[in-house]
Structures are given as structure tokens and as C-alpha cells.
Design brief:
single chain, mainly alpha
Length: about 260
């Protein structure tokens, strides 16, 4: 078996730990986990080393050059990261900027306005990284892209659109299931809830149908009535799905 090159716990909690945004209980739990996990310990040490590096001087045309690059990249069809040198640079820059944030947290030397500019730039860079991961040929990398996208706070519309497309048509059921979970966080956006209703009519995997039904019940979207009743009438639908449909109709107060 191929050795795992990333840790799911680190994927979920490392950034929050470094930004001091975890609760006290989660922070202590992750610190305890890190002491016994070589992967997380190595990543944490890397970020702390990056934070100790002196900040390089800001190039005079950084803002205009970055905005021009962002416009060019977002107007192109997304291609895999390893085929797009600019996005490889973005990934490296994201790590470097992350180091600056950690340095600011531990050293407290960055002016507030400069930190805000860096946050805005890092948000745009994270968008490009998420979009590239979601387009990778490897299902494992796309799964990482879904998980990465689901952790973004108030992501740009391009990321949400890419997650919706992943939900609809990714070749891996594991990736599609992860997309359902990631999109639940953004279900207040009309396009997301509508995409889940539509997906319930097009997905034929019982696991996908169950995940979508659970989510639609959770967000109380009554537009699910028509696809739910259609599933209930289909003879080929898995019995477990039919049973869940009946319960969902009651939970949505449609019976």
C-alpha cells in the first residue's frame, strides 16, 4: 500500500491552528495529535520556519501585476497545476504568504493595512489553487481539492461553481460525495441548493441519492418534493432510498 502523504486531521485543522482560530479544545486536541503525527509535525515545523524568515521587500508593481495575472488566469479554462507554471508559482506564493501570516501572529510586526492587503491577495491565490486541484486527473487530488474548497471562508463564486460541476459530473463517486458535504456549507447560495435538487434527479447511485436527500432535508428545501416523489415511484430505486424518501417527505412536511 502506498504510504499516505497527507494527514486528514492536518488537512482540517492545520490552518486554523496556525491562525489561532480553533477553539481551545480543538487547539489542544490538534497539538496533542501533532506530537504523535510525523506528517503534521513536519508541516507545522515548516510553517514556523517560514514565519521566521524576514519578509522580502514588496515589489513596486506587485498589486497591478497580481491583478493583471488574476484577470488572465480567471479568463482561461482551468488546466492542471503541473501544466501551468503560473499556478505553480501561485501555490508557492500561497505558502510564502501563509508564512507571513504566521510571522505576524507570532511577531506582531506587520501593519494592519499590509496584513489586510495580504489577506485579499491570499484569498485570490487560494481560489486559483482550489480551481487547479479540482481539475487534476487523479481522483485523490480532486478529493483534496474538494476538501480544500470546503474549508474556504466565503469562497469566490468560481470555486462554488466548480464544486457544483464536480457534484454533477465527476467520475469518482467518492469525489461527488465529498462535494455534497462541501456544498452543504454554502447551501444558502441559491445556485447551490438548486444544484442539489437537480442532482437528485440525475444521480443514480444510492449513496449519492441518500447523501443528497439528507442534505436537502437538513436545509429544508421544499423544491425537492418533485424529485423525491419521482424516486418513490421508480421500481428500480434501491429499497433503502425509497424508505429514506418517505421519511424525507414527512420531515419536509410534504405528506
Amino acid at each position: 500500500m502506498k504510504e499516505m502523504s497527507f494527514c486528514p486531521t492536518g488537512e482540517r485543522h492545520l490552518s486554523g491552528y496556525l491562525e489561532n482560530s480553533l477553539s481551545a479544545v480543538d487547539r489542544e486536541a490538534f497539538a496533542s495529535h501533532t506530537r504523535g503525527c510525523e506528517i503534521c509535525q513536519g508541516e507545522l515545523n515548516l510553517w514556523i520556519k517560514l514565519a521566521s524568515l524576514p519578509a522580502p521587500p514588496t515589489p513596486p508593481n506587485l498589486e497591478s501585476d497580481f491583478q493583471a495575472m488574476l484577470r488572465r488566469e480567471t479568463n482561461k479554462a482551468v488546466t492542471p497545476l503541473w501544466k501551468k507554471p503560473r499556478l505553480a508559482w501561485v501555490a508557492a506564493a500561497t505558502l510564502a504568504l501563509g508564512g507571513f501570516f504566521v510571522g505576524a501572529q507570532f511577531g506582531g510586526q506587520k501593519p494592519k493595512s499590509e496584513l489586510e492587503d495580504l489577506r485579499l491577495e491570499m484569498r485570490s491565490m487560494k481560489t486559483l489553487v482550489a480551481m487547479s486541484l479540482l481539475q487534476q486527473q487523479s481522483a485523490i487530488e480532486r478529493l483534496r481539492g474538494v476538501n480544500y474548497s470546503g474549508r474556504l471562508e466565503n469562497p469566490e463564486e468560481a470555486v462554488v461553481t466548480a464544486l457544483v460541476q464536480t457534484l454533477r459530473s465527476d467520475s469518482s463517486i467518492d469525489v461527488r460525495l465529498a462535494a455534497v458535504d462541501a456544498l452543504r456549507k454554502y447551501s444558502t447560495r441559491p445556485k447551490v441548493s438548486m444544484a442539489m435538487v437537480d442532482a437528485l434527479q440525475s444521480q443514480d447511485s444510492p449513496m449519492m441519492q441518500l447523501a443528497l436527500i439528507d442534505t436537502l432535508v437538513e436545509i429544508q428545501d421544499r423544491r425537492a418534493e418533485a424529485p423525491l416523489r419521482h424516486l418513490a415511484s421508480e421500481t428500480s430505486v434501491d429499497p433503502a432510498v425509497k424508505q429514506r424518501v418517505e421519511k424525507a417527505l414527512r420531515e419536509l412536511k410534504l405528506q
